[in-house]
């Protein structure tokens, strides 16, 4: 009862989630107006984020009641919308902007003429220089009755790992992501038509992805390699294990005998790869570091295999979930290979406790795609799509098509 009373106080006495009943986007000569219609007047927190430019609207937990056929078309500054539960009692709406933006005003309108409570956000276009100089990124517009103290938790917890009892990992502020640049050193990987090597492309994309993810302030990113060095496949997994990572992303580029093959693909671990790995790990002499927080050294190979298999099965499911989210984001940005989500027994995907994916960024044997892979603009597009998928995976934000 005390907990319920405290929640009622924090949320201004409202214990039932309000309904989000309508969304409107209006394009005006000098601004874009975004309107939310709700069953109750909400507390709110509105701010922007750069690179990519976004408007973030935090509200008390909402019930999404907007029919799919009533979601508005992309217009003005707004090109995409995502909605989801950001924290246990905070819903978040993210508006992806077409260009640098500033919030000119935020206000509430009371029920009138058949409309319910309306939250209005006016957005204006600015230059990148003005955005940087105006302190826009530090500005937060909040209601008189504050939504909630700004949480120190960066995002919703990842779906719980089956065997992850480490309290330090649960309490840390930022999610840890390991980005793996494929190949390196004496192993160049594939060579493109122009002579560019896969190891260089992978490192360029890995560095860019690290910068983009860390710029958000939500993630700590560790790279398996940050230079042209050789690293065994198992060592890459060990880097993630040691860091107690929440996610592992391995970046590669592909090659095919046919120059017509092109497209991005995403791999998660196959069931066969999982079974074989569980057996190999169960037979490992030093079992103390296989499942963080559990010492399996006293267990028989049969018991170890069961425990590892249980952990890996849950981890694989999470890896597949992230792979599906990745495909959903990447398909809006790049050409996808047929059946873009695939499974294989890649060694770098075989951590029993860290959801892992391998992204083939495209085909270096296709002339046009190789040229795109070498382009900084294309690299930025792919990296932004991957970072959005990471946000969606951890924050469980659902993307709504505005086109």
Task: Report what the structure shows.
The protein has 403 residues and is α/β, with parallel strands linked by helices. The chain folds into two domains: 2-142, Immunoglobulin-like (Sandwich); 167-400, 3-Layer(aba) Sandwich (Aminopeptidase), CATH 3.40.630.40. The protein contains nine helices and 17 strands. The chain has a six-stranded antiparallel β-sheet with strand order 10-3-4-7-6-17, with no helix packed on it. A six-stranded mixed β-sheet has the order 12-11-13-16-14-15, sandwiched between helices. Strand 3 (45-49) and strand 4 form a beta hairpin. Helix 7 packs across helix 9. The protein is elongated. The two termini are 46 Å apart. 38% of the residues are buried.
Structure in a nutshell:
With 403 residues, this protein is α/β, with parallel strands linked by helices.
Question: What is the CATH homologous superfamily assignment of the largest domain?
Answer: Zn-dependent exopeptidases
Largest sheet: 6 strands, antiparallel
Strand order of the main beta sheet, please?
A: 10-3-4-7-6-17
Q: What is the general shape?
A: elongated
Number of helices: 9
Average pLDDT over all residues = 79
Structural class estimated from helices and strands? alpha/beta
Radius of gyration: 23 Å
Overall tally of domains: 2
CATH class of the largest domain: Alpha Beta
CATH fold name of the largest domain: Aminopeptidase
Name given to the CATH architecture of the largest domain: 3-Layer(aba) Sandwich
Report strand %: 25-35%
**Strand and helix order:** HEEEEEEEEEHEHEHEHEEHHEEHHE
Which segments are poorly predicted (pLDDT under 50) over 5 or more consecutive residues?
1-15, 149-170, 273-300, 303-308
**How many β-strands, per DSSP?**
17
What is the share of helical residues? 25-40%
Cα(first) to Cα(last) distance is: 46 Å
């Amino acid at each position: 009862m005390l907990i319920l009373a405290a929640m009622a106080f924090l949320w201004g006495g409202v214990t039932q989630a309000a309904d989000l009943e309508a969304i409107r986007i209006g394009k005006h000569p000098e601004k874009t107006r975004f309107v939310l219609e709700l069953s109750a007047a909400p507390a709110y927190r509105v701010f922007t984020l750069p690179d990519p430019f976004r408007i973030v609207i935090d509200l008390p937990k909402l019930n999404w009641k907007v029919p799919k056929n009533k979601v508005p078309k992309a217009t003005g500054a707004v090109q995409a919308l995502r909605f989801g539960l950001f924290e246990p009692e905070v819903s978040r709406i993210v508006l992806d902007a077409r260009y640098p933006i500033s919030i000119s005003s935020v206000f509430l309108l009371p029920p009138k003429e058949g409309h319910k409570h309306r939250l209005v956000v006016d957005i204006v276009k600015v230059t990148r220089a003005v955005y940087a100089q105006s302190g826009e990124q530090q500005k937060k517009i909040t209601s008189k009755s504050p939504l909630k103290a700004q949480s120190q938790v960066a995002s919703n917890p990842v779906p719980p790992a089956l065997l992850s009892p480490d309290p330090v990992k649960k309490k840390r502020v930022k999610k840890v992501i390991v980005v793996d640049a494929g190949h390196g050193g004496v192993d160049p990987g594939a060579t493109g038509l122009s002579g560019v090597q896969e190891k260089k492309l992978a490192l360029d994309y890995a560095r860019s992805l690290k910068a983009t993810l860390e710029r958000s302030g939500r993630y700590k990113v560790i790279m398996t390699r940050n230079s042209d060095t050789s690293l065994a496949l198992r060592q890459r997994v060990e880097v993630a294990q040691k860091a107690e990572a929440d996610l592992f992303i391995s970046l590669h580029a592909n090659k095919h005998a046919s120059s017509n093959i092109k497209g991005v693909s995403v791999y998660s671990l196959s069931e066969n790869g999982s079974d074989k790995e569980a057996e190999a790990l169960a037979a490992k002499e030093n079992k103390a570091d296989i499942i963080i927080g559990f010492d399996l050294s006293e267990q028989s190979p049969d018991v170890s295999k069961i425990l590892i298999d249980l952990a890996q099965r849950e981890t694989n499911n999470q890896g597949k979930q992230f792979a599906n989210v990745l495909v959903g984001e990447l398909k809006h940005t790049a050409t996808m290979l047929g059946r873009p989500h695939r499974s294989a027994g890649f060694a770098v995907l075989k951590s029993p406790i860290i959801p892992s994916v391998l992204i083939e960024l495209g085909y270096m044997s296709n002339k046009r795609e190789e040229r795109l892979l070498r382009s900084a603009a294309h690299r930025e597009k792919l990296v932004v799509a991957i970072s959005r998928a990471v946000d969606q995976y951890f924050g469980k934000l659902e993307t709504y098509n505005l086109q």
